Amino acid sequence: MMTKDLLIIGAVVALVAIMVLAALPEITSAMPDVYYVEPTEPEAATEAATEAATEAEPETVLQSTASVRYALTAAERDEVERVVMAEAGAEPYIGQMAVAQCILNACEQENARPAEIVKRYGYTDKRPEPSYKVKSAVSDVFDDGDVATDAEILYFYAPELCQSIWHESQTYVCTIGGHRFFEEAEQ
Q1: How far is residue 71's CA from residue 143's CA, in Å, rounded to a whole number?
Q2: What is the DSSP letter of 150?
Q3: What's the CA gap between 84 and 70, in Å, rounded?
Q4: Backbone angles phi, psi at 40, to 5 degrees
Q5: Per-residue pLDDT for 8 more than 90?
Q6: pLDDT tens per residue, range 64-76
Q7: In what order do the strands lie in the sheet with 155-157?
Q8: Which end of the chain is more exposed for a tag (fewer CB within 10 A), N or C?
Q9: Which three-class secondary structure state does DSSP give residue 50?
């Protein structure tokens, strides 16, 4: 009787092994290859900027063949993560994603890089070390295209820290944690 049980167990194990091996090509083909992308030089560079760029080592962007919504250089990723940590480090994960989404939406709408958006939109000057959770939130938004809301949020503020008539004049979308998020008001 024991031999029959062992044969049944062996057949089940063999069947599972065959199914896993049959699915292996699909699993491995779904895994993205990783390659490096060199950033392009700006077309209208000044002579001094060109000399400085040739002396400095080019910054490399680690990018995957999988779809990336908005490719960041390592320096840009670090700055965005630090800004999100400063603005929303104590907020829930979805709130951290929402702040990252505000930066991303502004980058896409204004065709500007994150450092310019951070300066233009008046984000805090603090740059604390980002937590793993914040790094994941930034990656989810910029790399995977995940969003906290389907709305094109651009602005937020914390009503517990300040009042903002200007923010409230925009189109309110939602409150996450201690922040109120807004789209640009229609003209």
Answers
A1: 7
A2: S
A3: 16
A4: -85, 155
A5: no
A6: 545 788 999 999 9
A7: 155-157, 179-183, 171-176
A8: C
A9: helix
pLDDT at position 20 is 64
Six-digit token string for 150: 């389907």
Q: How far is CA 130 from the centre of its chain?
A: 13
Residue 107's CB: how many other CB atoms inside 10 A?
Answer: 21
Amino acid present at 110 = E
Residue 67 to residue 78: CA distance in whole angstroms: 21
State whether residue 4 is helix, strand or coil.
helix
Q: HSE, CB side, 13 Å, CA atoms: give it for residue 139.
A: 11
Distances (CA, A) of 43 to 49, 50, 55, 72: 11, 10, 18, 19
Helix (H) / strand (E) element for 54: namely: helix 47-55
Query: Percent of the chain, pLDDT > 90?
Result: 61
pTM for the whole thing?
Answer: 0.66
CB 140 within 8 A of CB 146: yes
Cα–Cα distance measured from residue 64 to residue 77, given in angstroms and rounded to the nearest whole number: 15
Residue with tokens 């229609």: 186
Report the amino acid identity of residue 122. G
**φ and ψ of 58, to 5 deg:** -65, 145
Lowest mean pLDDT among 13-22, 25-34, 111-120, 143-152: 25-34
